[in-house]
Amino acid sequence: MSAATAPHTAYGARLSSLREAMKRLDVHAVILPSADPHQSEYVAERWSTRSYISGFTGSAGTAVVTLDGGGLWTDSRYFVQGPIELARTSGLAFMKAGQGTAEYIDWLAKELPDGATVGIDGKLFTVNQVRAIKKKFADTSLELRTDVDLVDEVWSDRPAMPSSTLFSHDIKYAGKSAIEKLGDLRTQMKEAGLSHTFVSSLDEIAWLLNIRASDIKCNPLAIAYALVGADRVDLFTDPSRVDGETSKRFGESSIHVHAYSAHEEALLAITAEQKVGIDEGQVNYHLASLVRDECYVAFSSPLRLAKAIKNKVEIAHIREAHVKDGVALVRTFRWLEHTLRTETIRECDVVDKLHEERSKQPLFYGDSFDAIVGYGENGALPHYHSVPGEDAVIKDEGVLLVDSGGQYLDGTTDITRTFGLGKVTDEQRTRYTLVLKGHIALSRSLFPTGTRGIQLDILARQFLWQQGLNFGHGTGHGVGFFLNVHEPPQGIAATMSERGKTGFVEGMFTSNEPGFYQEGEYGIRIENLVLTVPAFPEESAEDPEKFLRFETITYYPIDYLLLEPDLLTTEERDWLNAYHDEVYARLSPKLNEEERAWLKERCASL
Question: Which pTM was predicted?
């Protein structure tokens, strides 16, 4: 096989079946993205095709399979994990995206013969993505087919469409009714001259209609499409899973439920005098192509930004959810500290304990992602996933990284802490402190409304850069409200991605998580969630140049054992002491006497 090694037997059979199907269609290569028809970051098992074929389990990546080879392109979060997984599964070549490696289109142009055909499933690519591929292909001799869906032929036991119970998200948590949200959207539709807008993003549908479900692990979403008109909404999902209370509320909001498969017919039925808004960055190419040209209007969904700006009710609940989460963390890590002295504890034991303690908290719904508990060298994998029986034993020395979060009806949490367990090195202490200094710099920053994430990113990296060090992932991502733990558009990143170029406004909820990873040895990351709030509350709310700051909402102490205090300035010490004072004030009323004493010791002033 060119550009690959021999695959594991099971993956070899899958690749062989795929290649036979490709030959029948006279297709020389297929591109398999990490996507479902709704462009979700995390997908239901039914659409985990890239993982099924390639063996790579990361959340981001694109596999390319040719008739005699192929490769997997992904970002720096998986540069260590990716090659290991591929070597023991499909044998596809590992490609480091953005590190001087040819993009997969350029790689295909080099690998394939003149006039070769590349196939994609148009349901798994947005309009903009297909447009970009076609533009790239214009400089090559390659042909693109957008109707190549070979999954069912290859995946004989493919999981069924998920259909969990759909339920209402109460306005006492959401803060705004579906009728109000639909009214806002319809105002913007009217201004754009639209009779309809087609919504395909699952979290936008959930937010807009105040509904939730559990179709995707850790993401409280329902697989659905929505066609919003001037006086009704057509929701395409399994009608049998809508409970009575939600059905009644749907009637009050003129929301009509149809079979999931009926969405294509609805798009085809849009008449010539109607105009439908299509967000070309979210709607898949296949569905967009069903809309008549005279009805089609490119329309950037306003729901993306509206959802990202939390209302006052949501913000109040977010604070409460993080108090509950902090209590669960105190009980988990106090257990870890005490039990580690007398018993063997593995990484998966900590994963289970985190879930157990969170599940005892009111309004808990589930984890917001699979917890990352990485001891020693496993901590150097930013998205490490421990597997029972293969997970590491945690010892009373070295570095432990724990990244976890919860879904509550009143908020979504995400926190990372790095712990020194007994003996640690001077290098580890220094680098941990450099990461903390960057975290504090971002936490203390003041900036005018509209400042972009790319402008803020250097604040978190500056101290590492001064030592010739860096980290490969973004510094921060948006967070949903009882929705996806990764929520665009805003974030903090070193590139002009959507996350890097979106301007911050009041009400956005974002992570602050710089890190450092020494491959094969240890990983460091410190993550809190922050709300964007007025820096000077007396300023006019309407002032376009109003200054903002980040209010830290995560409440759990930052580990001192790895800290090198002499590297902190007076201002940094003051921030850390003030943060720990707030952590103790917020959590202590919810703890028993022994837990309060334990927490007080960890929140002591420097």
Answer: 0.95
